[in-house]
């Protein structure tokens, strides 16, 4: 090969859509870590980027679809999963990955999550769980801890939060994992696993929102979040999802579910093959 | 049988409006249906559930209508012609994502078999109460195309055309079919496949690096890449530039985009709009009607002619973009206009606006039965003196 | 010429289907235009329901029935509600066992066809609608018997062809008989 001078590019550059960057996230926000981990997984898997579709909803993390150099779609609030279902069923060859927030996926979009998991449609869902609605200024959401202060719980949250790991497992996900943004390596490995797995996969990433939730909850800075994650995280692979509740003292992390089950696409393919022999006439 | 022959049931059939609509979709090349059961549109979903697998397509019953329309937009972006069918309550749930389809220029077809509202209203009874919602239901400024059949044959034909418009203009197209037409059975003739005109979306002619997903051609419609084809493009419901990049603070981008989304329909309105004129040449009184009401009106006009009254019918097939020019021209010729609708006064306002100084008489009907021809005839006679 | 037919009874009697078959026979198996419309309550079983057919040599403008030329009724409620809507000089075909209370109507031609009882004799009450269609065919000649049979055959589950055709014949013959009796 002829010698040539090359500009040194960041190794992840081909995976990012340069034209939309700089991103909108605050300093110390965990969403950048998730993006980094996600594109690292794509790089390490050496997947064909043409066959990846990234779908997100509305929220801070929802902007991620705009930053990945793949086909991508930024849907309405709460609807990335049904949109992704449409993409996946229209072209099952695509690896369809939903990356969105706790509010998007589990409040306004909660119904879609449980049904996509129940059907075992082969989309991969990554949730940035920052315990609040970051984008709209830090309101309470479906994962906000009991008693926590947010913009709309000035006297403390009186709602019980979801245990997302348990919810996903109970809804029928075939792969369920939870990590914090401290666990970059393991998070990346889980994303790789999910991308390669057939069926509905779910990864919860506990993520700091220092700018808003950190202040309201008095958890503090990005560093304080990291210290909390470090102190409280306990790896409990394949432990009971029902016991995986997040508390101030303990964040159970790890892989909780990894099972095999026929996917919707597979059953659909079989049914279609059978039906194609039969044509109902008119009249 | 080839896939195409299985999809297009060439021949004479006896169908309901709902079934004809489903078969029209299949003939147009629809290969994805996402829906949720609701009277009186359920027959469309049931037919698609049986027929789509036979032609290698995908039917999925989603968890609600919000999911249905989201999945339809997703399937459209992944390259399939996609459709959903619902009625008032489901149509209301779909509105936010209809806006998304408009904003991201996703070709898709939405059928609303109209029942009586508001709310759960009268599930098994017909209405024409959603015709303004079709145009104005989602937030922001936008244009869609809405068609309304009066016969079962037209339910078939117009569904094919709906897909063609959706593909040509990259816009959601609605079939606004009152439940009487939806549940009415008539003969439908399905032509041979090679006699059915099919339009497919324009594909990009440039390499990936040069592709700007929202850069329009001269007709104001941008070519559309498909997920998986290697274009690595981004679409968002946020205001975006031609590259698809969010531009949430650029006034100019907002103006350019919103104007183009509206203008691609407004400026092509003459090509899009379909109407039928009957006995209007020498008419002194015109009835303007659509859907099942147009058939009552046709009967009334015939009866009026038999009685020596110079009446004519302007039947609207396209409801949106509203045939403003066509109504205005008729209004200039006649002394008065009668508008019967199965609602409490909706499209009549558009007619009034277009008719300017020509007086308009509105006839309202609520609850299942359309106007009897005699009732419209009375109004025609009333307009005579 | 425009001919209007109304068939009425309660859900589960095959009323809607009967109307469909008449319209289909006229429109697919004879060279006429026909349209069928229907109305039923929110409950698909048990509630009152009616099926209406317009048949014409011309294009049909208004598809709804307003003054029926022919009325077929299979329940008391339907009789009470619709007998008065029949055109003067129109034809009324009714199932007498289902309609204990009848009025005298001098301006209408009335034919009594015990379709439900005859269906019971065939061992299948659900076939009463097809018996009625047989009688309707011979009494009114609304469509040709062959066209009607074709329409019946394309509307029934596989394996029930003989049962349905037998029912049709029974009704047809019964209709012929009552027609002759009334002409006599
Ligand atoms: C239908 C609708 N309702 C409300 C909003 C406003 N909204 C935008 S983002 C958001 C919450 C986002 O929270 P989450 O999904 O947790 O993402 P985060 O910003 O925390 O990353 C809300 C309520 C909206 N865009 N659409
Ligand atoms: S508000 Fe919170 S979640 Fe949003 S970008 Fe800032 S730190 Fe991240
Ligand atoms: Mg959040």
What are the defining features of this structure?
heterotrimer, A: 283 residues, alpha/beta, Rossmann fold, 8-stranded mixed β-sheet, 10 helices, 16% strand, globular, B: 385 residues, 2 domains, 5-stranded mixed β-sheet, 14 helices, 16 strands, 39% helix, binds thiamine diphosphate, binds iron/sulfur cluster, binds magnesium ion
How would you portray this structure in words?
- The complex is a heterotrimer of chains A (283), B (385) and C (184).
- Chain A is built from 10 helices and 8 strands.
- Chain A is α/β, with parallel strands linked by helices.
- Chain A is globular and about 65 Å long.
- By secondary structure, chain B is of the alpha/beta class.
- Chain B is 39% helix and 22% strand.
- Chain B is built from 14 helices and 16 strands.
- In chain B, the strands form 3 sheets. In chain B, strands 2, 3, 4, 5, 6, 7, 8 and 14 form an 8-stranded mixed beta sheet that branches.
- Chains in contact: A-B, B-C.
- At the A-B interface, strand 2, helix 3, helix 5 and helix 10 of A face strand 1, strand 2, helix 3, helix 4 and helix 5 of B.
Structural class of chain A: alpha/beta
Question: Total strand count of chain B, please?
Answer: 16
Mean pLDDT of chain B: 97
Helix/strand/pairing class of chain B, anyone?
alpha/beta
CATH superfamily of chain A: Thiamin diphosphate (ThDP)-binding fold, Pyr/PP domains
Total number of helices of chain B? 14
Please outline what is shown here:
Chain A is α/β, with parallel strands linked by helices and 283 residues long. Chain A contains 10 helices and 8 strands. Chain A has one domain: Thiamin diphosphate (ThDP)-binding fold, Pyr/PP domains (Rossmann fold).
How are the SSEs placed, and which strands pair?
The complex is a heterotrimer of chains A (283), B (385) and C (184).
Chain A: H1 31-45, E1 52-56, H2 64-67, E2 71-74, H3 80-90, E3 95-101, H4 102-108, H5 110-119, E4 124-129, H6 164-171, E5 175-180, H7 184-196, E6 201-206, H8 210-216, H9 222-232, E7 233-235, E8 251-258, H10 264-275
Parallel strand pairs in A: 1-2, 1-3, 3-4, 4-6, 5-6, 7-8
Antiparallel strand pairs in A: 5-8
Helix pairs in contact in A: 1-7, 4-5
Chain B: H1 3-7, E1 11-16, H2 17-28, E2 30-35, H3 42-54, E3 58-61, H4 65-77, E4 81-86, H5 88-103, E5 108-116, E6 122-126, H6 131-136, E7 145-147, H7 152-169, E8 172-178, H8 179-183, E9 185-190, E10 234-236, H9 251-266, H10 269-272, E11 275-278, E12 285-289, H11 292-306, E13 311-316, E14 318-320, H12 324-333, E15 336-341, H13 347-355, E16 360-364, H14 373-382
Parallel strand pairs in B: 2-3, 2-4, 4-5, 5-8, 7-8, 12-13, 12-15, 15-16
Antiparallel strand pairs in B: 1-9, 5-6, 7-14, 11-13
Helix pairs in contact in B: 2-3, 2-7, 4-5, 11-14, 12-13
Chain C: E1 2-10, H1 15-28, E2 33-40, E3 48-56, E4 70-73, H2 76-82, E5 91-94, E6 109-112, H3 115-121, H4 128-140, H5 145-153, H6 161-183
Parallel strand pairs in C: 1-4, 4-5, 5-6
Antiparallel strand pairs in C: 1-3, 2-3
């Amino acid at each position: 090969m002829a010698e040539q001078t090359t500009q040194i590019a960041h190794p992840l550059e081909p995976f990012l859509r340069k034209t939309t960057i700089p991103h909108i996230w605050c300093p110390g926000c965990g969403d950048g870590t998730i993006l980094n981990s996600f594109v690292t997984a794509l790089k390490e898997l050496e997947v064909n980027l043409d066959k990846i579709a990234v779908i997100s909803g509305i929220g801070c993390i929802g902007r991620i679809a705009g930053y990945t150099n793949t086909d991508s779609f930024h849907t309405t609030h709460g609807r990335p999963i049904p949109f992704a279902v449409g993409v996946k069923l229209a072209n099952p060859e695509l690896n369809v990955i939903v990356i969105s927030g706790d509010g998007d996926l589990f409040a306004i979009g909660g119904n879609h999550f449980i049904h996509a998991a129940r059907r075992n449609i082969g989309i991969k869902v990554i949730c940035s769980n920052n315990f609040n609605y970051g984008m709209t200024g830090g309101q309470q959401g479906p994962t906000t801890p009991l008693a926590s202060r947010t913009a709309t719980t000035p006297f403390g949250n009186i709602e019980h939060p979801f245990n997302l790991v348990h919810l996903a497992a109970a809804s029928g996900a075939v792969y369920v994992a939870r990590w914090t943004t401290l666990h970059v390596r393991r998070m990346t490995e889980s994303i790789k696993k999910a991308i390669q797995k057939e069926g509905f996969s779910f990864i919860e990433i506990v993520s700091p929102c220092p700018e808003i939730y950190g202040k309201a909850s008095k958890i503090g800075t990005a560093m304080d979040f990291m210290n909390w994650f470090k102190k409280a995280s306990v790896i409990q692979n394949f432990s009971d999802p029902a016991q995986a509740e997040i508390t101030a003292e303990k964040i159970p992390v790890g892989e909780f579910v990894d099972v095999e089950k026929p996917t919707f696409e597979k059953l659909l393919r079989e049914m279609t093959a059978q039906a194609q022999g039969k044509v109902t006439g008119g009249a | 049988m080839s896939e195409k022959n299985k999809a297009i049931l060439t021949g004479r059939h006896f169908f309901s409006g709902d079934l004809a609509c489903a078969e029209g979709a299949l003939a147009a090349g629809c290969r994805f249906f996402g829906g949720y059961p609701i009277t009186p549109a359920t027959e469309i979903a049931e037919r698609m559930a049986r027929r789509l697998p036979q032609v290698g397509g995908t039917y999925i019953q989603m968890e609600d209508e919000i999911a249905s329309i989201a999945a339809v937009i997703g399937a459209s972006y992944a390259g399939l012609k996609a459709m959903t069918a619902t009625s008032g309550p489901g149509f209301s749930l779909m509105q936010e994502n209809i806006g998304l389809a408009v904003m991201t220029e996703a070709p898709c077809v939405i059928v609303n078999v109209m029942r009586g509202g508001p709310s759960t209203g009268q599930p098994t009874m017909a209405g024409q109460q959603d015709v303004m919602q079709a145009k104005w239901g989602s937030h922001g400024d936008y244009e869609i195309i809405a068609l309304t059949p009066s016969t079962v044959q037209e339910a078939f034909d117009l569904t094919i055309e709906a897909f063609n418009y959706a593909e040509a203009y990259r816009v959601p197209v609605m079939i606004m079919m009152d439940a009487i037409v939806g549940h009415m059975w008539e003969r439908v003739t399905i032509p041979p496949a090679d006699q059915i005109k099919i339009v497919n979306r324009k594909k990009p002619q440039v390499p990936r690096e040069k592709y700007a997903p929202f850069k329009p051609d001269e007709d104001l419609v941008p070519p559309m890449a498909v997920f998986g084809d290697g274009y690595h493009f981004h679409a968002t419901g946020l205001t975006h530039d031609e590259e698809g990049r969010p531009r949430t603070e650029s006034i100019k981008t907002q103006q350019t985009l919103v104007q183009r989304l509206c203008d691609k329909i407004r400026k092509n309105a003459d090509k899009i709009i379909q109407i039928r004129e009957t006995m209007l040449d020498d008419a002194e009184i015109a009835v303007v009607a659509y859907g099942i009401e147009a058939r009552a009106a046709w009967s009334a006009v015939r009866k009026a002619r038999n009685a020596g009254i110079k009446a004519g019918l302007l039947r609207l097939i396209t409801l949106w973009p509203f045939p403003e020019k066509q109504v205005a021209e008729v209004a200039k010729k006649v002394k008065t206009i009668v508008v019967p609708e199965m609602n409490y006064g909706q499209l009549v306002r558009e007619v009034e606006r277009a008719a300017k100084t020509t007086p308009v008489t509105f006839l309202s009907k609520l609850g299942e039965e359309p106007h009897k021809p005699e009732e419209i005839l009375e109004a025609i006679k009333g307009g005579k003196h | 010429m425009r001919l209007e037919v109304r068939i009425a009874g309660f859900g589960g009697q095959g009323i809607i289907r009967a109307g469909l078959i008449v319209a289909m026979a006229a429109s697919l198996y004879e060279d006429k235009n026909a349209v069928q419309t229907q109305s039923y309550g929110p409950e698909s079983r048990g509630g009152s329901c009616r099926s209406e057919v317009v048949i014409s040599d011309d294009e049909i403008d208004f598809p709804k029935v307003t003054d029926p030329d022919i009325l077929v009724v299979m329940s008391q409620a339907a009789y009470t509600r619709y007998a008065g809507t029949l055109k003067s000089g129109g034809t009324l075909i009714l199932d007498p066992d289902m309609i204990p209370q009848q009025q005298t109507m001098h301006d209408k031609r009335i034919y009594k066809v015990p379709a439900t009882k005859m269906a019971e004799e065939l061992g299948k009450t659900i076939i009463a609608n097809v018996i009625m269609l047989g009688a309707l065919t011979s009494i009114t000649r609304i469509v040709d018997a062959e066209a009607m049979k074709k329409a019946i055959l394309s509307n029934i589950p596989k394996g029930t062809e003989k049962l349905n055709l037998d029912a049709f014949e029974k009704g047809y013959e019964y209709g012929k008989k009552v027609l002759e009796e009334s002409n006599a």
